[in-house]
């Protein structure tokens, strides 16, 4: 079995037990199909013996389940329950879902919602489109900011200090053929999004995928989330998606009023 010595632990690994347990729980949550103990230790930087002890404690609480056949740890039902409760608090299920379903009925494409989470965005809701070929997303997973329409919008409408910090710190790893990899180009794209009130992504996150996003703003003007329509490039041009901006903005305005305070 592969082990990670204490000297190998990265500097950003929490020193406290609770912090390490939370890191392991987050990693399990990011692998809905399961993750092995050795992979948990490697990705978390927490030694195997410690990872084993902590993840078994999470299993006892129902937050994690151990699949004996594949020797993999998966999210437990208790974690799902907590996620559902959090979704209700933020209004993602009861409030956002009906609005997003209506948008999808009108666009016949997938509708997605994300919130800013550090230097990434977190997918919080998704409505599948009716087309046989479409875009899929997994709520609870993270996405990059620099190469997604929602990421650009979330940066564009973030408070000035947050936006300035993000533009300096976000990772510019290329994900698709048109990913932005230059920081000045990213600043320009975010400035355009702020000016226009929407952002697009043209095969930036994935090859063959295009998207457009608008901000969901509170009545006080602060950004709460981003709302997006995404579609295969063969079916929708960028101009097609931009034509949907008024529809998305109308839905976003409704959500900005109806979603509960964070």
Automatic annotation (TrEMBL):
Q: Which residues form the IclR-ED domain?
A: 78-261
Task: Read off the InterPro entries from this record.
Answer: GAF-like_dom_sf (IPR029016), HTH_MetabolicPath_Reg (IPR050707), Tscrpt_reg_IclR_C (IPR014757), Tscrpt_reg_IclR_N (IPR005471), WH-like_DNA-bd_sf (IPR036388), WH_DNA-bd_sf (IPR036390)
Q: A Gene Ontology biological process annotation?
A: negative regulation of DNA-templated transcription
The highest taxon in the source lineage is Bacteria
Q: Which Pfam families match?
A: HTH_IclR, IclR_C
Domain HTH iclR-type: start-end pairs: 15-77
Keywords attached to this entry? DNA-binding, Transcription, Transcription regulation
GO MF entries: DNA binding; DNA-binding transcription factor activity
Q: Which PANTHER family would you find in this protein's record? A: HELIX-TURN-HELIX TRANSCRIPTIONAL REGULATOR, ICLR FAMILY, HTH-TYPE TRANSCRIPTIONAL REGULATOR RV1719
Q: What is the name of this protein?
A: IclR family transcriptional regulator
Species whose genome carries this gene: Streptomyces botrytidirepellens
Organism taxonomic ancestry: Bacteria, Bacillati, Actinomycetota, Actinomycetes, Kitasatosporales
């Amino acid at each position: 079995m592969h082990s990670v010595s204490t000297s190998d632990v990265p500097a950003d690994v929490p020193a406290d037990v609770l912090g390490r347990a939370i890191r392991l729980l987050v990693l399990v949550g990011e692998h809905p199909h399961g993750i092995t103990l050795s992979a948990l230790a490697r990705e978390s930087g927490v030694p195997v013996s410690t990872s084993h002890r902590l993840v078994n404690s999470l299993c006892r609480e129902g937050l994690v389940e151990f699949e004996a056949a594949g020797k993999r740890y998966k999210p437990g039902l208790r974690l799902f329950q907590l996620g559902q409760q959090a979704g209700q608090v933020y209004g993602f299920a009861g409030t956002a879902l009906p609005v997003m379903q209506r948008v999808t009925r009108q666009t016949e494409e997938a509708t997605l919602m994300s919130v800013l989470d550090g230097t990434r965005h977190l997918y919080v809701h998704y409505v599948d489109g009716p087309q046989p070929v479409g875009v899929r997303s997994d709520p609870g997973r993270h996405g990059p900011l620099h190469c997604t329409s929602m990421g650009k919008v979330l940066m564009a409408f973030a408070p000035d200090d947050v936006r300035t910090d993000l533009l300096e710190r976000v990772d510019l790893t290329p994900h698709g053929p048109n990913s932005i990899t230059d920081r000045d180009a990213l600043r320009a794209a975010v400035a355009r999004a702020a000016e226009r009130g929407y952002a697009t992504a043209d095969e930036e996150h994935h090859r063959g995928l295009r998207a457009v996003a608008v901000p969901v703003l509170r009545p006080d003007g602060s950004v709460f989330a981003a709302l997006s329509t995404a579609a295969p490039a063969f079916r929708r041009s960028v101009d097609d998606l931009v034509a949907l901006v008024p529809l998305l903005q109308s839905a976003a305005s409704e959500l900005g009023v109806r979603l509960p305070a964070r």
